[in-house]
Design a protein that fits this description.
- This protein is rod-shaped.
- The protein is an alpha+beta fold.
- Helix 1 packs parallel to helix 2.
- A hairpin with a 2-residue loop joins strand 3 and strand 4.
- The protein folds into two domains: 102 residues, Double Stranded RNA Binding Domain (2-Layer Sandwich), CATH 3.30.160; 51 residues, Sigma 54 modulation/S30EA ribosomal protein, C-terminal domain (SHC Adaptor Protein, 2-Layer Sandwich).
- A four-stranded mixed beta sheet has the order 1-2-3-4, with helices on one face. Strands 7-8-9-10 form a four-stranded mixed beta sheet.
- It is 30% helix and 34% strand.
């Protein structure tokens, strides 16, 4: 991460330069994989107002923040907190995009006898009668199978839609 400082209307002390560069270099830990990041820090003084403006530009990253106070050290700390929050939010968005983009990576496919199981669902069947299950499957146009718990026998049953439009029942046993 490259940091460029610009000072306006005052001559900074060596201590301020070191303090500001140490503080802004700490932002690099949040951008650990981004090497092409440029940070421009503008520090200025207008009468009693100490202003700081920072722009960060890099790979899919464009952040900016501005702060002012009566003390330059406090201004640097306040703008650092602001930028840290923005960077954390940006990193979380990137993580969320990666998580959504690769859902298959969460459950690795398993081989069973030449076939591959890509995913699995956990399901707790609802207790209902056969006619209720038929009505529910009838309402679900895009579903072809309904797994339910038979209210009479307390056994898991499967009701499925046949190619001719009728329903078939798989009874789990006696």
């Amino acid at each position: 991460m490259n940091i460029a400082f610009a000072f306006k209307n005052f001559e900074p002390s060596d201590h301020l330069k070191k303090y500001a560069s140490r503080r802004f270099e700490k932002l690099g830990r949040f951008l650990h994989k981004s090497e092409n990041v440029e940070m421009t820090v503008n520090l200025s003084v207008d009468k009693f107002r100490h202003k700081a403006e920072v722009q960060i530009a890099g790979d899919a990253l464009n952040l900016s923040a501005a702060e002012q106070s009566e003390d330059m050290y406090a201004t640097v700390d306040m703008i650092l907190d602001k930028l840290e929050t923005q960077i954390k939010k940006h990193v979380e968005k990137l993580k969320e995009k990666r998580r959504i983009a690769s859902p298959a990576a969460e459950t690795p496919p398993t081989e069973t006898g030449g076939r591959t199981i890509i995913g699995e669902d956990k399901f707790v069947p609802k207790p209902m009668f056969l006619d209720e299950a038929a009505m529910q499957l009838e309402q679900l146009y895009d579903e072809h199978v309904l797994v339910y718990l038979d209210a009479d026998t307390s056994k898991v049953n499967v009701l499925y839609r046949r190619k001719d439009g009728n329903f078939g029942l798989i009874d789990a046993g006696q």
